[in-house]
Amino acid sequence: MQTTETRRLRSLARTAPARPLLSVEDRAGEWVVHTAGELYEKVIATADFLRAVGLGPGRYTVIALPNGEGLVRALLASWAVGCTPMVLPQQATAFERQVLSADLGEAFTGAFSLGERELAAALGSDAVRSAPRPAPPGPEPETAWYLPTGGTTGLPGLSSVTPGPSAVLSGVRQLMRAAGWSPGAVQLSTGPLSHAAPLMMCMAGIGGGAHVVMPRRLDPGSLKSAVRRYSPTWCHLTPHQMALIDANQALWDDLCASLCGVLHMSAPCPEDVKRRWITRLSGERLYETYSCTQLVGATFCDGVEWLAHPGTVGRPLPSNEVLVADEVGRALPPGEVGEVFMRSEWTRGLGDSGPHRLRGHGDGYLGVGDCGYTDDAGYLYLTGRLDDVVLVGGANVNTREVESVLLAHPRVSEVVVVQRPEPLMGSVLHAVVVPDDPAHPPTVATLQKFCDGRISAYKIPVTADFVDALPRSHAGKVERFWRA
Known about the structure:
CATH class of the domain at 4-237: Alpha Beta
Oligomer: single chain
CATH topology of the domain at 4-237: Rossmann fold
Low-confidence stretches: 348-355
Radius of gyration: 23 Å
Distance between the termini: 56 Å
């Protein structure tokens, strides 16, 4: 038995072996094209290698590789022999690996490390042949992969995604189609594959027959090279990436000329950035989805819907449901803020506790600690996270509320608000600010005066740091930790 993704790849290799499936920019800035026929045979050779070293159903592989053919091949070969891959950031230190794998125990320590040396060995001698051959038999793993999560809001760990890869990627392709993707797309892949959204979109695109184009890094030079050479028609972006492209007119002009669809997710999108993208690209070509690494559910909307419901992250996709509940678990009506839970066809049957690092509500509803509300039409709006709430002198303060006020100041480009210990109050608020002009940042007093009258006095930051940039993860999310 072959996995669905392996069968898809073999079908492409047999019917269109010269079709480009993956183009990667190497360290020298040159582009390397991998066709369907080449990629399939390398995947099968790697699967044969894994079987030869004793791997099979129920085993795990650890993959810590840079974006590129090797990482894609390692994933597909792992699935082909029934293994579940654990995907780590390439640059993860020994300590970071220990933290990420702390909850997995023997599953991690007994996993097979599938790195560059092993991938090279798999292609040695006569391993790669000229004609597509059947994949080695083996059941598909029940868990698609383990990925890092939680690093921006708490202690990070590796979280599983269930069900298996075929079901997950089939659902992802449905979402991508709704956002303007098609099997003939030239798909720009800009994020690290050790993060959920870039990984899902990349693997779903390859299995669906798209040509995935992968720049070496997210900078104007690499992006311009990819855009001018391949004219991508579809891409997934984070709001941070959207802001970077938005600030580069030449890059934007090149990209806009060919794009038929853009899907963004992974973090809240600033309203001004969202509106400029809608104006330039049109609401019919810009889409947004809200989900999480563990795929408990998803919402979706296009730019036209967003303009009618500003600030929304969309309505639940088919077979998905959203529940907003208060602190004792009671469902809240539209307009009232509470904790957001979702359920989908994938999460039914997981039980109240759900997989790793999820909060259970009951009856299949699961959450990741986000807060928000729905409107009368069923559109969801996010207001922050449970762990964004800071106790200041006995009163709860949502740091996202304070950030939204500070962001309205004309001299503030970006900001994160955190708590700072204080002997009398217990905690006070501290702002980490990226000014629009680093040479002339606003003063703390100026920001405090701006907040006065807009939020209550106890919510106004007492101190501030002014920095050139906020720390971000490789997926573009702000790392919300700061020692004040």
